[in-house]
Amino acid sequence: MSAELKPIKEGKVRQVYDIGDSLVIVATDRISAFDNILENKIPDKGAVLTRMSAFWFDFTADIINNHMLSISTADMPAFFQDAEFEGRSMKCKKLEMLPIECIVRGYITGSGWESYRKNGTVCGIPLPEGLQESEKLPEPVYTPTTKAGLGGHDEHITFEQSVEILEKQYPGKGEAYAAGIRDCTIALYKKCAAYAWSKQIIIADTKFEFGLDENGGLVLGDEMLTPDSSRFWPLEGYQPGQGQPSFDKQFVRDWLKQNPDNNGVLADDVVQKTANKYKEAYGLLTGKAF
After folding, report:
1. Using an 8 Å Cβ cutoff, are 250 and 244 in contact?
2. How buried is residue 245: exposed, middle or buried, by Cβ count under 10 Å (0-12/13-18/19+)?
3. Fewest beta carbons within 10 Å, which of 44, 56, 198, 285?
4. pTM as predicted
5. pLDDT of residue 262
């Protein structure tokens, strides 16, 4: 059996294996930017993502149940007890994933800042006048999107649209599910952002994904608060009114914009710097050297 395991699903970074009563999600060292998988791999990136998600899942278990069962390959079939999978594999509960990405913004940056400069809103939500780039928002803002899948583009939707989408799929429950994932998203962000601040990291924004267990209960799934799914800024030197240095793949996006002739191929020093940034963020947040 172990020799025949193949992924049932493959995303930009992760491979998903069905092992019967549960799943194994493997985080590769691939990196994506602007909805494309880059040619380069970032050394140890998959292991950083897996361990960081595991840290946050444990940290927030008081807010909502999550899908993590184990990150020890000893708890997985023999196929995964190999150096290729060590440290980067998570055994998870099977969930019916909801078709909404739950994005929360605590600071005004990126596409949100571009939108605000044009019309004073983020994803159609009005914000106070006079905000500067990278400024902390009075309250975190929830801006859900659709889930486009591999090669597609997520689209911003309103909370009301998220209710409609979920109501179509789950008649009579759309509003409850939409409100539940919104409220959990805000609660998770507030708790984790306060903790990260104490560790000298600002979580500017992030995204969560949720699914349903066999009883229809909401469960947190996918990854959580990694440098792939979040903007992490160093607290030291933080200054509103400008872009910020980051611990996340914004560094890669910025480099690609500045070097369009490279056709999405990263320079060796950018690969190494990116790996170092991911590991530094992991060390600051968890207190453990990678």
Report:
1. no
2. middle
3. 198
4. 0.92
5. 84
